[in-house]
Amino acid sequence: MRKNVIQREFDELSVEEKIELVQALWDRIEEQGQAVDVTEAQRAELERRILAHEANPGQYTSWETLRRYLVGRKQ
Question: For position 74, what pLDDT does the model report?
């Protein structure tokens, strides 16, 4: 029952509020030290992206820079 209430309330949030909530939930999971298993396909994609970044670091934007940009846009 409680899960259904949370889902209904979540559906009433704006897209921005949903994204902020999801980020906050992810941060809490990380703070509690709970690991998320990664599939082999995800691991391979991460490795590909790391190698691409190492080969041409100036081509990519850091998460911190992108997040500042996105937060600035919504104001």
Answer: 65
Q: Which residue has the tokens 């691991």?
A: 43
Q: Summarize pLDDT for 35-68 with one digit per residue, the tens.
A: 778 899 999 999 999 999 899 988 888 888 988 8
Question: Distance (Å, rounded) from C-alpha 61 to C-alpha 29?
Answer: 25
Enter the pTM of the model: 0.46
Write out the two tokens for 73.
């846009």
For the chain, the domain total comes to: 1
Other C-beta atoms closer than 10 Å to the C-beta of 50 total 10
Mean pLDDT across the chain, nearest whole number? 89
User: Could you tell me the residue range of the domain that residue 31 belongs to?
Assistant: 2-73
Q: How many angstroms separate the CA atoms of 52 and 54, rounded?
A: 6
Six token digits for residue 38: 């990664």
Residue reference for tokens 């970044």: 53
